[in-house]
Write a structure and sequence with these properties.
It is built from 20 helices and 21 strands. By secondary structure, it is an alpha+beta fold.
Length: 573
Amino acid sequence: MRPRRFWHAPALVTALVLLMYGMFLPIEQEPTWLLLLWIGGALAGLVMISQINAAPPSNDLSRTVSRIGTVIILGFLMLSLQLLRQQLIKAEAISSYVVTSADGSTTSNVRPVLATQRVLRGPISDRKGRILVESMLVNGIARRSYPLAGAYDITAFGHILGFFSPRYGQSGLEARFNDYLSGERGNEWQSLLNEWTGELPQGNALTLTIDAELQDQVARLLGDRRGAVVVLDPRTGAILAMVSRPGFDPSRLVVDPAAADLAAERQRVSDYWSRLNQDDAGQPLLNRASQGRYPPGSTFKTVTAVAVLEHPLIGQPNQITCPNEYFPQPDAPPIVNAVNNLGAIIGEPVTLERVYAFSCNTAFAQYAVRLGADRFAEVAQRFNIFLPNRIPTGFRVLRDLPSEPSLLAVQANFLAQPRALADTGYGQGQLLVTPLQMALIAATIANDGVMMEPYLVQRITRPDGSTVRQTTPKSVRRVMSSSTARQMREAMAAVARYGFGNSISQFVTQPVGGKSGTAEHVPGAPPHAWFIAIGPIDQPRYAVAVIIEQGGEGSGVAARLAGEVLAAAFALE
């Protein structure tokens, strides 16, 4: 009698569930799919071979042939499933997939780009309808053109728009929204009709949240300094300006089909691409605003302060001191302040507002140690600043462009040491954050404690003007109570009134708030200069994050730039 195998049915069901789940995983999780494929195949193989072994006795040759046949059949089925996933289920995603490397350069499939050379890709315009890029026919070939290149600094828009090149592929919004811009998505019936009638296909248009004039002014204010500036509307999450330096000119990656010497024209584009990828070019293809990760310095004291206010019994916000030295653990060097005898400058009473305004390292190191690693990490995670083992699968702070998650530490157990926790509390340690993330922190405080999801694309419309998609502002979560948000706005206002960073008030006519940061990164190199700001302080309409790489003191050059950016935003209202 054949023995019963009670585990066969559960094993086969498990294998089927794993394979069905894996088939529809995003292509970014290809290693996970392959692991599930092998696990599912192994489970099915064990069941089949177990059945062969449990069959009535027969000659050894027959049983061996059956086992080999089972392995071959399983291999064929696994290969078929992989081909089904690649050639059918994920074919479109693979075709349009863009890989962005650490330096900002991209690798993508150029075939869709070549195919759309006879498609009038949709235009991309700013929030006020100013066209940033459109398509025009030249000698029967569609090419991208940039109408504002003469009036504005087109390099200010390179990281947002991206490039669209038959030779080098695509990046930015050109890549992320390629299906919409080419008309393959959102206008399917018209595209099919055009194939039958022979009419020139037209893509859908994107309307962005950015203000082209503000974007241009911010880029000119940042100048040739390496760094980034982000301006958000804290009430909606709309990105009003996002500039990264050094930038690039996407128009210089477009070949002109009407050029007298096409070989020379192609060589011109090739030379420009080579310059962009030189080691000493400063990674101009990298969008520092959403992909660059830096230690935040004292701007991160904002998160520590929120954690203290959210846990007042443990954090004791107004029971604090600002000593010249603080020893979080006896076998480690002390933590010191950037300014000698800072406690005397702060004066009495010593409160959270005053140690925040004067950026006392030793006070915020004490706060972090009081809170403990778990509470501290939990509040940071509310802001989407994660320990490396807690980053949600597929997380992206910005969905419209490539973006990197911000890290509370590089090592998962880094905060276990009191000195490491203390360092993180005042903005050093292993912290790595993006300028966009710091702008979101300021925006969340400005928006009464509710974080809004940032976005760049306001609307997608068909060539006839009908709407394909309209973005509705979406809250991510309530990060802090209204009371905590109010107290943080008061603390940021104190920075602008009398603290380290009050120089920002010289450049604006309305009361604002902010926080400076001077971030050490490489021993011996000048620190990065940071400033985050909100304004007007009573009813904030703007949240700003500024970083100038190796810019020195944040309370100086970065505060000035943040003030100039806010002044430009106020002037354009």
